[in-house]
Amino acid sequence: MAYFPPVPAIRRNILLTRLRQTGAVSRETAVTLSDAGIINPNGFKHITDLLVKRRIIFQEGNKFYLELREMKG
Predict the structure, then answer these.
(1) Could you give the CA distance from residue 18 to residue 41 in angstroms, rounded to a whole number?
(2) How many C-beta neighbours within 10 Å does residue 10 have?
(3) Other residues' Cβ atoms within 10 Å of the Cβ of residue 48
(4) φ, ψ at 60 (rounded to 5°)
């Protein structure tokens, strides 16, 4: 069985946590990755781009945010 390092999952969790902690939950409150406290914001750019493509996080210029939707339930 091959070992696959969990780097993508760790990076995803860090991005989501830091954006949530900084209150980046809308276009108006979007922050740069540096402002969110991401170490080496240009590292693992593919993972960030994939999260944007999948609409997990959103990008406005060089700023990012989460779009928190009300849960229906």
Answers:
(1) 12
(2) 12
(3) 20
(4) -125, 100
Q: 41: closest CA among 19, 20, 56, 66?
A: 19
Q: What angle do CA 6, 9, 14 make, to 5 degrees?
A: 120
CB atoms within 10 A of CB 28: 8
Cα→Cα distances 26→47, 58, 71, Å: 21, 9, 16
pLDDT in tens, the chain (73 residues): 667 678 888 999 999 999 999 999 999 999 999 999 998 888 889 999 999 999 999 999 999 999 876 444 4
Taking the whole predicted model, whether its pTM rises above 0.70 is answered as: yes
